[in-house]
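sanity check this fold:
=====
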Amino acid sequence: MGRMIIEYILGAVFVVLAILTLVNPEWIEAIFKVDPDRGSGALEWFIVAIFGVLAVVAAALGTKDAIAMRRRAA
């Protein structure tokens, strides 16, 4: 049960980070004080994609654990 909750929470965090990066892509440069893509925005789009994939994976793992837990309870 605990692992499932952690996976769902991580999925939610990744979704929030993806949305934050879509809305304000400069937050990365503001926090880390670097501009590795020299203003092209390519890195930000890559990070949005990574956060999106991580959110889907975390949600899928949480769902897998929830299904397994229901099967054990039945």
